[in-house]
Design goal:
This protein is mostly helical. It is 52% helix and 10% strand. The termini are far apart. The structure holds fe (ii) ion. It catalyses: 2 superoxide + 2 H(+) = H2O2 + O2.
Length: 231
């Protein structure tokens, strides 16, 4: 009799426990790609996109949810809040929160040919003032991306002096983090982890960096720049 009651209690308790677990895991979710996986070909292959979004980004989301649940970190924080205080969390939260924010930003920084638009006059002028020309900016951005040792990101940011600046961060760090060497508001970021390009470009990271301009969503980058100028 007692056994039956205990068994019934276990069965009754299971849905609640499962629900609690589901809630904890669902704190962050993988966003849908804003285009189809083959929309950025040939610069970025469908196979790369499937793996990068469906496996790598998914893993950052899953591992972030897991780390938050396991480490009893405060819940209800936005991804921006977690990133901004990255230095106060464990490496698991810092790396996976960065991975989630960076990749979400990355997908939105690119678009298919008919949706990329053009750089705004204001952004073009600011880039020319800072770097000499758009071409010189692109060359400097590619150089910084190629020079990042190991895995990381290369960024165009608006820094604390309201100037455009190219920076690079290791691993899944970004310029919004309290631990960033150079802080600022990212306008554009390219992922220079091997998983971003290896299937097509193998070890030729500079080739990937050069081809990537073909998929940059200048409409989005210009909007981000505008937002920094109207704050
Ligand atoms: Fe990546």
């Amino acid at each position: 009799m007692f056994q039956r009651i205990a068994l019934a209690a276990t069965i009754l308790a299971t849905p609640a426990a499962a629900l609690a677990q589901t809630e904890a895991k669902a704190e962050f979710a993988l966003p849908e790609l804003p285009y189809s996986v083959d929309a950025l070909e040939p610069a970025i292959s469908a196979a790369t996109m499937e793996l990068h979004h469906g496996k790598h980004h998914q893993a950052y989301v899953d591992n972030l949810n897991k780390a938050l649940a396991e480490e009893g970190a405060p819940t209800g924080k936005s991804i921006e809040e977690l990133v901004a205080a990255a230095g106060t969390y464990t490496p698991a939260i810092r790396n996976n929160a960065g991975g989630h924010w960076n990749h979400t930003f990355f997908w939105e920084s690119m678009a298919p040919a008919d949706q990329r638009g053009e750089m705004s006059e204001e952004l073009s002028q600011a880039i020319t003032e800072e770097f000499g020309s758009v071409e010189e900016f692109q060359a400097a951005f590619e150089k910084a991306g190629a020079a990042r040792f190991g895995s990381g990101w290369v960024w165009l940011i608006v820094n604390g002096d309201n100037q455009l600046e190219i920076t690079s961060t290791p691993n899944q760090d970004n310029p919004l983090m309290d631990v960033a060497e150079t802080s600022g508001t990212p306008l554009l970021g390219n992922d220079v982890w091997e998983h971003a390009y290896y299937l097509t470009y193998q070890n030729r990271r500079p080739e990937y960096l050069a081809a990537w301009w073909d998929v940059v969503n200048w409409t989005k980058v210009s909007e981000r720049f505008d937002a920094t100028q109207t704050q």
